[in-house]
Amino acid sequence: MTAIPSPTIQLNSGHEIPQLGFGVFQVDPVETQRIVADALEVGYRHLDTAKIYGNEAGVGRAIAESGIARDELFVTTKLWNDDQGDPEGAFQRSLDELGLEHVDLYLIHWPVAERGTYVDAWKGLQAIAESGRARSVGVSNFQTKHLDAILAEGGIAPAVNQIELHPAFQQRELRGYLAPKGIHVESWGPLGQGKYDLGELTGFQAIADAHGKSVQQIAIRWHLQEGLIVFPKSNSKERMAQNADVFDFELSAEEMDAIRSADQNRRVGGHPDEIN
Ligand SMILES: NC(=O)c1ccc[n+]([C@@H]2O[C@H](COP(=O)([O-])OP(=O)(O)OC[C@H]3O[C@@H](n4cnc5c(N)ncnc54)[C@H](OP(=O)(O)O)[C@@H]3O)[C@@H](O)[C@H]2O)c1
After folding, report:
1. Whose CA is nearest to atom 24 of ligand 1?
2. pTM of the model
3. Is the model's pLDDT at 114 over the cut of 80?
4. Ligand 1 site, residue 140, Cβ cutoff 6 A
């Protein structure tokens, strides 16, 4: 099984993350082992799951059956909101479900602002990182106010902030805050979760036609050239392969500018202030 030729990005822990991976949000737990086995077969080596997806066990079984060396894989999972009072216990349960001794990246899934427990949860994640059982730790769906709150406590900065980001929702302001702090951005919903037609964004279809690629491939290539970490989800092995077939062309500076101007500040998922 040959790995896709994804570049890697070095995180603040010193560890490298493959820039292109595979996400398993809304992948049925019953189907997960087969679908992740397909993704590994296609060549993905970076898998993004979460406790709340209910499919960590299937991800773990696919990894175990694949025969791929553990150090060739990058596995992310996430601390669910209800578990923010006990990150250590929740982390161990995730490891048990995955059947792994360590994960590569462990994230606080949402800031759960009303309860404010994310600040203490972040201390718990740093302790987990110090134990070596999560090679890197980070956050997800954090806005600047949440990041300010955890950074004010001292300690290490999150390796990443995993946020909703796609061509119609480019998050320029938050990215401008994160970049100088060395916090890398992971794009969730990189294809807009299929909730709008990428081809309807100004200029998008023409760029796809010019390269003989699908609008989804153009979007993924755009994330990569923006320096974002990205892990599109697909249940279909054919679309998995299509989404990884993005290393034989390059978007020009003009095309990158055209996609930049397609931003509509259009969120397709939940707002961090509304999730509890
Ligand atoms: N931290 C968070 O709060 C958070 C939230 C959401 C997601 N995530 C992570 O981000 C990952 C990616 O986001 P996402 O799964 O929400 O959305 P996404 O990757 O933007 O979109 C997935 C949708 O696009 C379709 N699709 C995939 N490739 C396609 C292609 N080449 N052509 C046409 N349609 C295609 C899929 O359908 P098929 O399956 O039928 O191909 C699915 O309906 C998740 O799996 C998860 O790991 C994190």
Report:
1. 194
2. 0.98
3. no
4. yes
